[in-house]
Each structure stands twice: as C-alpha cells, then as structure tokens.
Design a protein that fits this description.
Blueprint: H1 10-15, E1 22-25, H2 27-32, H3 34-49, E2 54-55, H4 66-70, H5 74-90, E3 95-98, H6 101-110, E4 119-122, H7 123-132, E5 145-148, H8 162-170, E6 174-177, H9 206-216, E7 221-224, H10 227-240, E8 247-250, H11 251-258
Parallel strand pairs: 1-2, 1-3, 3-4, 5-6, 5-7, 7-8
Helix pairs in contact: 3-11, 7-8, 9-10
C-alpha cells in the first residue's frame, strides 16, 4: 500500500495569508480515473521532492467544461467555466499547471474571454524546465528506447512539441519517433468528447491504427502526456494483444522512474 500523500489546498494557503508558486489543476481524469490517479500522484511527488510549493483546489475544483463545449452544450460550458473562474479569482491564482492537455487548452485559451486570465502551463513544460536546470537528479540506468505519442490538444492545438521530447532525451532515453508525429501526429480518437461515445462505423478504430504504429516502432515503452490518450492507446494495445509487452506511461511517471 502506498503511503498517504499530503497535499495542501488553496483554502489552507489562503488561511495563512500565503500563496504557492503553482495551482495544480488536477482535472476530472486525474481525480477520478484509477489509472490517471497514479499520474497525479507521481507529479505531486516530484514537486514535493523538489520542494516546489503548489496547492490544489480540492473539492472546489470542477470540470473545466471542455467536454460540454466539444459536445455542443455551450450553456453548460459557460456555467462550469464561470464557477471555476469565480473560485480561481477569489484565491488570486496567477499560475496554473495541469497534466491534462484538454484542461490546459480550456484554461489557457477559452477562460480569458470569460474573465479568467492566468499563466497556464502543461506539466511537460515544467518538467522539461526542471530537467534543463539540473534540478532533477537521475539514476544510472541502461539506455532504453521510448516512443512519444503527440496529444492533439498539446501538439497541433497549442504547438507544444519540444518539451515532451526534451524530457525523454533529458532522461538519457532513446527517443523513437512514430510514423505519424508532430504536426502530422495521429489522434488517439478521444478528443472532441468522442471518448464518451461509441465509435462510428468504419474499417478500423483510430486507437487501433495508432497503436499499430507504436508496435511497429519496436519499443517496449510509449510515453504520452494526456489522460484521454492514456485510455485510448492502452485500449488499442489491448486489442492487438500487446498490453503486456508495451508499457504505457505518462511523462511524469517516466521522470519519477528515472530520478533519484
């Protein structure tokens, strides 16, 4: 059983009249999905080990509204967004870090029009920066090949291609580029609220096609940086019967596996 992880809330910081360096936006997947809870924990443990001050909203955090807007329910999106903005502004939040590209995109690009103006970064950007500054000490390990799957909302949506790759290379891994990568990356099939519905009829599910590219790369480990991608890529590998041969990890988990 893993040890209890104590994480302060913004309310606790506010009670002391202080503010942390970052608000960590956990997101729905990071809070409730059993697989992505492990990513949340890994990222928090990294920040704590480096003595970087951060806090979460806890029960005051709600869904950003991304699935509602993508599925066409603009009214629900604005209700959720305005509720979150009210809480964020109440605490005077300036800087937000999140491990979800969907939350990242919504907080960064869609909240400003509703009065929510914050500096928003993805956890891959922060981890890449910490590695570049030499703040993360690494174990001596044999070099392994790691493929990276570009998230649509991180890559094509926001132009963040280098930070994830800088992490893999900074960890002394061999970066394996997939056939479809960077600006020509292949969607996992979950974006646009598609993760919540059954796939439409076609010759092949997109996650099955994407997972075949991962298998073809010959790696035993694929890194990614999105909870939606985590679900879909794992599903694709399961369908190919390769779930035991290829490990799917978030970049935060990859860093934690390699750091002292």
């Amino acid at each position: 059983m893993s040890k209890e992880l104590k994480i302060s809330t913004m309310a606790e910081w506010a009670a002391k009249g202080e503010s942390p360096a970052f608000l960590f936006w956990v997101g729905c997947a990071g809070s409730f999905d059993d697989r992505h809870k492990k990513v949340t924990r890994a990222f928090c443990e990294i920040l704590q080990s480096l003595e970087i001050s951060f806090a979460v909203l806890g029960t005051e955090e709600s869904c950003t509204g991304d699935p509602a807007r993508r599925s066409g329910n603009e009214f629900l999106f604005q209700m959720q967004a305005m509720s979150n903005i009210e809480v964020l502004n109440m605490y005077g939040v300036k800087k937000i870090v999140t491990a979800c590209p969907h939350c990242f995109n919504t907080l960064k690009n869609e909240y400003p029009e509703l009065g929510g103006n914050y500096e928003v970064i993805h956890h891959s950007q922060l981890l890449a920066e910490l590695l570049a500054e030499g703040k993360i000490q690494l174990k001596d390990e044999e070099k392994e090949a790691v493929a990276f799957h570009d998230s649509c909302y991180l890559g094509r949506g926001n132009g963040i291609y280098e930070a994830p790759r800088e992490i893999i290379l900074g960890l002394k891994k061999e970066l394996k580029e997939l056939k479809s990568c960077r600006t020509k990356g292949l969607c996992c099939g979950a974006g646009g609220a598609q993760v919540f519905k059954e796939p439409e009829e076609g010759s092949i599910d997109i996650q099955t096609k994407r997972s075949q590219e991962i298998i073809d790369s010959g790696v035993q480990k694929v890194a990614l940086a999105c909870p939606f991608c985590m679900v879909m890529i794992q599903d694709g590998l399961n369908k190919h019967g390769k779930d035991k041969e290829i490990q799917v990890v978030d970049l935060a988990e990859l860093v934690q596996q390699t750091m002292i």
